[in-house]
Structure of 6-phosphogluconolactonase:
Amino acid sequence: MTNERRVLVHPDKVSLAGSVAARFITKMLDLLDAQPVVHVVLTGGSMGAAVLEAVAASPARMSIDWTRVHFWWGDERWVPARDTERNDEQSRVALLDDLDLPEGNLHPFPTSDSGLTLDEAAVDYAAELADHGVDGMPHPIFDITFLGVGPDGHIASLFPHRSGIQVTDRTVIVVRDSPKPPPERLSLTRPVINASQRVWLVLAGADKASALGLALAGASRDEVPVAGIKGRRRTVFFVDQDAAAEVPESLIARDY
Ligand SMILES: O=C1O[C@H](COP(=O)(O)O)[C@@H](O)[C@H](O)[C@H]1O
């Protein structure tokens, strides 16, 4: 098995979401055959909900024992519970509310109406991660981490030319000046993401082409944060044709 980054191109957003959902279901079945619990990191953004909606629409999802699946988030916007800006809310509406999961399987970041300050919320989430840590690590080893990629190349809430992408001494950071609203956010750090067994980046649209092309051409993670992301076993970019426009042909595998 190679740990090279792979780019799988799909004709459009709908087929992209459907294909990623089908792969996710298949991989979950494989993982649940082999281990008692699976840890998955979800993302917000345009494709995060689209993939989960496609999972929800698939009858094959019924074959998964979701009670053995734990869901985490890569980042969160510092807004109240059930605010539609929240990544966890988007995931709940798209899929999770239908799965009837034990509440203990969901690990959302704290909400701005939780009574915690933003700094306390980061400490709180770091403690939650540590509670599920393995192999002496202060966090779970995620089996699949989904990430979206912004047009500027940001992943989670790690933005270009900001300190967050360089942080290695914490599992969670506070963001107070996000260039994308809302300004206040929480995010996993790069080492936590890169400790994931598989990182699946899902992105669509012509506005993502430049960031993806730069990342694969060797740009620095400071310039294009997604360039600094690599899972332990697999790193796959699931993209549509528009987002693939600046990817070197030699890196492309077409999924159709
Ligand atoms: O703000 C965020 O943006 C990214 C990418 O979003 P997109 O809409 O451009 O696809 C997302 O992955 C991240 O989780 C979110 O908080």
The domain at 5-254 is CATH 3.40.50.1360 (Rossmann fold). The mean pLDDT is 96. The CA atoms of residues 153 and 224 lie 5 Å apart.
